[in-house]
Amino acid sequence: MFSRILSCDPPRSTLLAVILALIFVGLLTAPYVFPTLQALSVAVKIMVFIVLVASFDILLGYTGIISFAHTMYFGIGAYGIAIASSWMGPTWTALLVGLAIALLVSCLIAGIIAIFSLRIRAVFFSMITLAVAAAFQTLAAQLSDFTGGEDGITFRLPQQLSAAFKYFDYPFSGSAAGFNGQLACYYLLFATCTLCFLTILRIVNSPFGRVLQAIRENEFRAEAIGYRVLLYRAVAALLSAVFATVAGAMLAIWLRYNGPETTLSFEIMIDVVLITMIGGVGTIYGSVIGSVVFLVAQNYLRDLLLSAEQFSASVPLLGRLLSPDRWLLWLGVLFVLSVYFFSSGIVGHLRERTRNQERSHK
Amino acid sequence: MDWKPLAIVIAIALISLALIGSPATWLTLTIAGLAMGMILFLAASGLTLVFGLMDVLNFGHGIFIAIGAFVASTLLGYLYAAGAGGGFWSDAVILLVAAIASMVVAGIAGWCFERLIVKTVYGDHLKQILVTTGGLIIGIELNKVIWGSAQRSLNLPESWRGSLSIAGVSAEKYRLAAIVLGAIVFGAMAWTFSRTKIGLLIRAGVQDREMVESFGYRISTLFVIVFVAGSALAGFGGLMWGLFQQNITAEMGAQLNILIFIVIIIGGLGSVPGALTGAVLIGLSTNYVGFLFPIASQFANIGVMVLILIWRPQGLFPVASSRGQG
Amino acid sequence: MTGELLRLDNVHTDIGSYRILHGVDLTVPRSGLTMLLGRNGAGKTTTLRTIMGLWRASTGSIGFNGKNIAGLSTPHIARQGIAYVPETMGIFSDLSVAQNMVIAARSARGVEDIDAARLRKIFRFFPAIEKFWSYPAGKLSGGQKQMLAIARAMVEPRDLLLIDEPTKGLAPSILENLVEAFEDLKGSGTTILMVEQNVQLAERLGDTVAVMDNGRIVHEGSMKAFAGDDSLKRSLLGLSL
Question: Are strands C18-29 and C4-15 parallel, antiparallel or unpaired?
């Protein structure tokens, strides 16, 4: 039964399966095991990134395309929720309408980009997506009437999802607030994340997904066999955009805010690519492991850098290198190193270990 | 000579004249556009050759632009403080010194970048994109470590500011100088590519790398030369851009990267005349659209690129390459 | 040893996951024209490219003038004195005919440096080269491009010429120009290894012959013996003569 749920794409490594199970349980019980708000926020961010990175992996890992416009769909999802909620008021209808419109817009844009990329050289694609993403971010910041400009939009959620709304007084722990709207929100996002993840797993293991893999292995041969490579890539791009949009909606719902920097920044794009690589390109499970590793590290590493900076304040250059403001520098170094050494990611390495163990046991 | 792209540039200029109405305004915008185009060309020419010759997508090209600008700004700071300059020509010498310094440092940075980062990912476009993007981020952050994250001003010397009056129209001195300089650089490149053997080798290499190697030339050495020269030119472009904008930030390279990508895509990867045409097109359209429809200015450049690609999917001057990529 | 210029020993070449050459043993004697014959797909072009270093031999050795050149880079191999004329000719169509020649003449910095005597000879064999000297090479006809490709290999002295199917689709008149040029090259002591599909031409020009099939050499010997043996030709090349 487990195999069916996981779309016949099991972790293929006991250690990996254990880790994944732990993460699942950890996220499921986070509000009770890690009751601080900071921990909860990290947990939500992890769930959002699982969906976002998995959607990116469809493109990078299964089609071999790198699109820098991925954060655009992330932002569209978030803005959809934000704009709808602030215009239509904090109702469930607003959330649904916002999500629906966001999905529509994302599909439209992804479709246009896909059709356009049929005509142009493959090498142009990444550069063009970079340009489009940058223009979109500036546009979002400029259309202040619509998007709240640089400051973004703050909005309220339906009553059932707000912290003040109490469902019942009996949690499993001593959490004073009981089971309230905020926890309901958390579990809504948890369910969404799980659903999206399993759907993506199903997609890449479907006949459609197998063709994508064939294209990734040998595009020429796939085309020769008769698959319209460009068409498959276009559909993959569309699916990728859809899930990225959902991830954006998830984030907006939790933060009750969205602005250009929250979802459209280049740093987020880099984070996504890096997590994909750390986790393992083309594995989908990599999005889970990668997100957890990266976001936990990011959270607590900033504090580490802060203390490191204070330590090395006497050595001027070192101090500036270790400043938490220079987090991106170390991110960049990690990024470059992972391209060289981490090509199969954590998931890849774990699977390799299992394969080697099995071989040596035979 | 393929005259159609040139005709398009002229057509755009004339249409804009009709839309703008006032010839004086149009002339100011056109000069600004041409100057911007020339500066973009300087920064872009190296990148398009690097791709054409060695099939390498370098997303980190913007670093050299920023390095050039920052090195120049530091040097100019010292020189001004030391009381150098004063007249038009002595200031020109100072700017020349700054330009040479930025080119040398940017060139050295280019050499390091090629040996450390680019060389290891020949032949794999995906890895190139990833690694050079990482390199770009590292470069920007190191820039901030060395020079701080605040914006810096990069000012023209006093004698170079202001405008000249030509036939009743005032044109900024610096912009005219930029146009002249850009034309000189382009002329020098054209001369190199048609009259020197190394120029011939580069052109031949862009077309058919294997054949050039079969004649006994080490293309990898050629490539390093082109990469370093391209980085140096980018550094020079950075200095010019900084003076154009009057200020510089560590992110300027990343921002210009995007414009440059658009320029070389429009021009056709591997083509220097294409880079020039693309740069002039972008410079002009940015200025015209910025004046006529400010709201659309964000997407104007992308719009131009899309239109050109619909017409010629390989760019304006596709280089006849034997590699057969699609 | 003095008799042979080039010697391939048990050379295997893979392209991707496909093995194309399955142990090629080939000897090319000095100062003659060796014809490399065989059906399409036998591995003739792959052999030339492997010698030139454009494709890496996975095993085996390639001895040139006694030195093993297998594994060297292509520019290094070329500098040993080997010129390569691929089937696709490799003309730099963006450059003029003159500029093509300048590139081919490694020691020349410009057109003035090209050996005048050699150039005169080239003009004699290939008048079109002189006629279209300043034209973009891309504007030449197919036959003229082929002449330019051969001319480039002749502009400086080389020990070995690797030529891949030079006569394909050429008009008879141009063919004659090429044959004259090849005879002259032979006379000057240059060794030629040529892949050809045209058996009559091969018999006319070749001194030695090697036949390939399925990535191996299946026959080596003098051209005279080969030309006179109809049953051998039929079995090796599937020709009905």
Answer: antiparallel
Give the count of beta carbons closer than 10 Å to the beta carbon of residue B100.
15
B140 touching chain A per CB within 8 A: yes
Residue A167 region, left (φ>0) first, then alpha (ψ -120 to 50), else beta?
A: alpha
Q: Is this model's pTM higher than 0.90 or not?
A: no
Q: Are strands C57-64 and C67-68 parallel, antiparallel or unpaired?
A: antiparallel
Per-residue pLDDT of chain C (241 residues; tens, 9 = 90+): 457 889 999 999 988 888 889 999 999 999 889 999 988 888 899 999 999 999 999 999 999 998 999 989 999 999 999 999 999 999 999 899 999 999 999 998 888 889 899 999 999 999 999 999 999 999 999 889 999 999 999 999 999 999 999 988 888 888 888 888 999 998 888 999 999 988 888 888 899 999 998 899 998 999 888 888 888 888 887 754 4
| DSSP 8-state secondary structure symbol assigned to residue C42 | S
- Dist CA B220 CA B13 (whole Å): 41
3-class DSSP assignment, residue A164: coil
CA distance A313 to chain B (A): 14
- Is residue A46 within 8 Å of residue A299, measured between CB atoms? no
Owning domain of residue B74: 4-311
Structural domains in chain C, CATH included, are: 4-81+158-237 (3.40.50.300), 92-156 (no CATH)
B317 occurs within a structural domain: no
Judged by a CB distance cut-off of 8 A, whether residue B272 touches chain C is no
**Closest Cα in chain B, distance from residue C237 (Å):** 31
Judge whether B216 is closer than 8 Å to chain C, CB to CB. Answer: yes
Number of domains in chain A: 1
| Residue-range definition of the domain harbouring residue A226 | 2-361
**How far apart, in whole angstroms, are the C-alpha atoms of residue C119 and residue A19?**
74
Q: For B69-94, give the DSSP string.
A: HHHHHHHHHHHHHTT---SHHHHHHH
Whether residue B326 lies inside any domain: the answer is no
Q: In C, which residues are within 8 Å of B197 by CB distance?
A: 102-103, 108-110
Calculate the CA dihedral of residues B159, B165, B171, B172 and round it to 10 degrees: 10
Residue B10, SS3 per DSSP: helix
Closest CA to A9 of A219, A208, A206, A304: A206
Q: Which residues of A touch B (CB under 8 A)?
A: 64, 66, 116, 119-124, 126-128, 130-132, 134-135, 138-139, 142, 266, 270, 273, 277, 317, 320-321, 325-326, 328-329, 331-333, 335-336, 339-340
Does C94 contact B319 at a Cβ distance shorter than 8 Å? yes
C191 DSSP 8-state letter: E
Which neighbouring-strand residues pair with B267? none
Residue of B38, B39, B83, B45 lying closest to B61 (CA atoms): B45
Six-digit token pair at A313? 């304040």
Check: CB of residue B234 under 8 Å from CB of residue B61.
Answer: yes
Number of structural domains chain B divides into? 1
Distance from CA of B108 to the nearest CA of C (A): 26
Query: CATH no. for residue B95?
Result: 1.10.3470
Helix, strand and coil in chain A, % to nearest 5: 80, 0, 20
Element containing residue A178 per DSSP (H, E)? none
CATH code assigned at A31: 1.10.3470
Q: Burial of B21 by CB count in 10 Å (0-12 exposed, 13-18 middle, 19+ buried)?
A: exposed
* The residue type at A164: A
Closest CA to A233 of A216, A250, A258, A252: A216
For residue A209, give Cα distances in angstroms to A67, A278, A313, A322, B320. 19, 22, 52, 43, 36
Alpha carbons A357 and C9: distance in angstroms, whole number: 41
